[in-house]
Design a protein that fits this description.
Blueprint: E1 3-7, E2 10-12, E3 18-25, E4 31-39, E5 46-52, E6 58-60, E7 68-73, E8 78-83, E9 92-100, E10 103-104, E11 111-115
Parallel strand pairs: 2-11
Antiparallel strand pairs: 1-3, 3-8, 4-5, 4-9, 5-6, 7-8, 9-10, 9-11
């Protein structure tokens, strides 16, 4: 079965950096993309970034473009989100999810990012 473990969150000052990791296991052949999402208290889940299976295509929300970089190491079954120039509005719980046959069905426990 699909398992996702996010890590790397923490508390940083504005302008700082963090690198989130998402270790995946059990993903199926129908997975062509891994996405990062975030949810701030009282707000809806927001898509942040995606990377396709071979890593050749990446995409970012306008709010993070130029500051965040998504990457993957298929040998380690891990997807990363490098977050630079963090802002207070980046404060949220961050989740990764595989897109399987066009839908995000599986979610990890999330990792908390707090920017002050």
């Amino acid at each position: 079965h699909v398992q996702l473990v996010e890590s790397g969150g923490g508390s940083v000052q504005a302008g700082g950096s963090l690198r989130l990791s998402c270790e995946l296991s059990g993903i199926t052949e129908g997975t062509n993309c891994i996405g990062w999402f975030r949810q701030a208290p009282g707000k809806e889940l927001e898509w942040v970034s995606s990377i396709y299976s071979d890593g050749s295509i990446t995409d970012y929300a306008d709010s993070v473009k130029g500051r965040f970089t998504i990457s993957r190491d298929n040998a380690k079954n891990t997807v990363y989100l490098q977050m630079n120039s963090l802002k207070s509005e980046d404060t949220a719980t961050y989740y990764c999810a595989p897109r399987e046959y066009g839908a995000y069905r599986y979610w990890g426990q999330g990792t908390q990012v707090t920017v002050s």
